[in-house]
Amino acid sequence: MLVCANFARAKIDESSFDAARVIQRDVAITGRGAARTYAAVRLREDLNISIIVIEPKNRLGGHVDTYAVLETNTTLEYGVQSYMQYGPTVGFFERFGVEIGPFTLRRLATINVDVEMGITLDYTPPAANDATEALNKWLQFVEKYDNLVEPDFWNFPSRDKIPMEFLIPFKKIVREQKIESAVPRIVTISGIGVGDLQILSTSQAVQAFGLAVTKGVLEGTFIQPKVSNSLLYQRAYELLKNDVRLGSTIQETERGSTGVRMTLIKAKRVLWIPYPSQDNLKAFEQDDKELQMFERWNTSVQYLPRKVEPSNHLAVRDHPYYLTLGTTGPSGLGLFRVMLGANYSVTYEEAKSVVTSSVQKLVEAGILNYTGHCEVDIKALSAHHGVLWPRESAALKQGFVQKLYSLQGHRNTWWTGRSWCEEYSSNVWTFTDTVLERLLKSLA
After folding, report:
1. Distance (Å, whole) CA 443 – CA 110
2. 77 close to 267: Cβ distance less than 8 angstroms
3. Whether pLDDT at 37 is above 50
4. CA–CA separation, 312 vs 134, rounded Å?
5. What is the pTM for the complete model shown?
6. What Å distances lie between residue 359 and 116, 306, 371, CA to CA?
7. Nearest alpha-carbon partner for 188 in 329, 96, 13, 324
8. Of 417, 415, 425, whose CA–CA distance to 86 is shortest?
9. pLDDT digit string (tens) for 203-247?
10. How far apart, in Å, are the Cα atoms of 150 and each of 123, 248, 265?
């Protein structure tokens, strides 16, 4: 093992630690998410690289969240719902003996209501055939740029060679391609465009809803584990647990030319998984190059802005937040899966307040078969927040992608996760393989 020494700004006094408690590894993997577990398995089991996983939660799984319905011996997924048959996905499930099957979407009668008033809207969503036809046109469009964005942006063109279509507003492409009927499905699945689709660039839309996911939607090839999404991570933990530190966070780091040193951990490289917010990185001793990049980041009831009436599909995101409620079963328990997305920061308490007041508006409007004040009981809650790439096309022209990817390997740190590629687990795993290939070469 490499002993990391001769740091220009030594802050960690190694002599203050019992030598028996100092962990030395080739790679320290920090953070949450699908990429972290996948990378740990690949590095340790396939590539013979020693690892240590630093996990803030008391479990592996990142955005996979499973709620056990105690009354019925069933489980409900309120995080990741399904997976694409893309890259190493199917093989990764098979590796852990997790049986998979087709993803089945619960069929619900949708009620469209005003996001502010809670009253019903006279909005007609696109017909299924129209949506499919529009998605096929979108497929032809994204197919042209697949090599630029999937599964990674290593080969993204320089500023003077970026396709002009990437730099214009998504709304303009929608109108030019006549694919308005695809918009509700695109934004619902990807979660993009909250607040106003007008400022969303086409490059962001392609990144969020590229070739793989479009094909998966059209061909109906999404999959899901037959037991629960958490089973994969439970079995992965059993394999990795000697090299996993649950409930742990980084308090202090040193990164130098010869390696990385964290409190009690010495590693040759760091593989960073969480989204790179200033809060997440506060113990990570950023240099000027990193600071310059990361400072910028920043029944079914569907709540919609009134502007969608009667069928203005491009207005479905013209509100600072979106909210959907969908019954999950089992029958008689009154359980709903709630999705709240916003273009501003929301605390857990604020999210609960939005959900509670929105449900009460449905009661007052007579949409729910209930009288009086409705008590909302939050059974489980999980935040799936992150950072978005700049939405302005000017950022691409200024070389944002190249500057971002130039951080790969900088100060012995490698980066993966949904902040660096398309955010679906299947894409993240595929992208992670490209990062591990480069990380491995740096260790040689």
Report:
1. 53
2. no
3. yes
4. 15
5. 0.84
6. 11, 18, 12
7. 324
8. 425
9. 989 999 999 999 999 999 999 999 999 999 999 999 999 999 888
10. 35, 32, 34
Query: What number of H helices and E strands is found in the chain?
Result: 15, 15
Count of alpha carbons within 13 angstroms of residue 353, beta-carbon side: 5
DSSP annotation of 140:
H
Q: Do residues 75 and 228 lie in contact, with contact meaning Cβ atoms separated by under 8 Å?
A: yes
Structure tokens at 145: 């740029």
> Residue 27: beta bridge partners?
51, 269
Annotate 248-274 with b (16+ C-beta within 10 A) or e (fewer).
bebeebbbbeebbbbbbbbbbbbbbbb
3-class state of residue 115 by DSSP:
coil
The 10 Å Cβ neighbour count of residue 94 is 11
- The whole-number pLDDT of residue 259 equals 64
Residue type, 293: M
Contact 137, 178 (CB under 8 A): yes
Is the preceding omega at residue 320 within 30 degrees of 0, hence cis? no
- Type of residue at 57: K
What's the pLDDT band for 33 if we cut at 50, 70, 90?
A: confident
List phi, psi (to 5°) of 62: 55, -120
Radius of gyration of the chain, Cα coordinates, nearest whole angstrom: 23
Q: Name beta bridge partners: 119.
A: none
Task: State the residue for tokens 């969908």.
Answer: 326
Tokens (6 digits) for 85: 């048959």
Kindly state the helix (H) or strand (E) to which residue 203 belongs, with its residue range.
Answer: helix 202-208
b/e string for 339-351 if b means 16 or more Cβ within 10 A? ebbbbeebeeeeb
Phi and psi of 138, rounded to 5°? -65, -40
- Contact criterion met (CB below 8 Å) for 304 and 113: yes
